[in-house]
Amino acid sequence: MDVTVTMIQAWLDKFTQAIETNKAYLSDLDTPIGDGDHGNNMARGMAAYQEAFAKQNPATISDTFKVLSMALISKVGGASGPLYGSAFMNLTKATKDLTVIQKDELGALVAQGLAGIQARGKAEVGDKTMVDVWAPVAAALQQGQLTTETITVAKEGTKELVAKKGRASYLGERSLGHIDPGAASSALLFETLLETIA
Ligand code: ADP
Ligand code: MG
Ligand code: MG
């Protein structure tokens, strides 16, 4: 089955809800290894998306991603805003002429989003960032085998990593044993995607 604009918008509504529900959890993850604001940052960004969406009523997949990207870049006062914003700006470009997304194109699209995150943030796999969820999710989707377990393993796996990028990198080895907050919000993004396309 193809992924329609309605499904993309339903996905982003589910993600907004998941962020709202997990706001305190995400900020709690950010407390020992960051500045304790990740849940609030993401909630502010998704509220800004909902507000801009209601005003602009985007009719295409590409325009929907653009509204999200601009909201995250302009309204999130943290590293995660421009990083997610770059991902969704790449998706805006990659879906320019599409009225639907074929399911087997989703992996390539997530890989484009990942490329945006890496172009901006310079993190590699293993640096304990959101990249450690986006990369295995893109790979699994490209093989047509993304499961919630893949997502959970990727997120939990950031506990075993020493942070090399972002605020958590200031802690060095002391960042060990903690889940990366951006990996956790990215897990919500892809869990809600899976629910939407199931
Ligand atoms: P801030 O650190 O500015 O307070 P947030 O708390 O909202 O911003 O986001 C922190 C998250 O951003 C981290 O958990 C990590 O996943 C992600 N992050 C930070 N720097 C980078 C980077 N250079 N590349 C990829 N992701 C990053
Ligand atoms: Mg923070
Ligand atoms: Mg901050």
Automatic annotation (TrEMBL):
This is phosphoenolpyruvate--glycerone phosphotransferase. Residues 6-195 form the DhaL domain. Pfam families: Dak2. ADP-binding subunit of the dihydroxyacetone kinase, which is responsible for the phosphoenolpyruvate (PEP)-dependent phosphorylation of dihydroxyacetone. DhaL-ADP is converted to DhaL-ATP via a phosphoryl group transfer from DhaM and transmits it to dihydroxyacetone binds to DhaK. The keyword Kinase applies. Pathway: Polyol metabolism; glycerol degradation. The lineage of its organism: Bacteria, Bacillati, Bacillota, Bacilli, Lactobacillales. Its EC number is 2.7.1.121. NCBIfam families: dha_L_ycgS. GO terms for molecular function: glycerone kinase activity; phosphoenolpyruvate-glycerone phosphotransferase activity. It catalyses: dihydroxyacetone + phosphoenolpyruvate = dihydroxyacetone phosphate + pyruvate. GO terms for cellular component: cytosol. It comes from Enterococcus canis. Homodimer. The dihydroxyacetone kinase complex is composed of a homodimer of DhaM, a homodimer of DhaK and the subunit DhaL. Keywords: Glycerol metabolism, Kinase, Transferase.
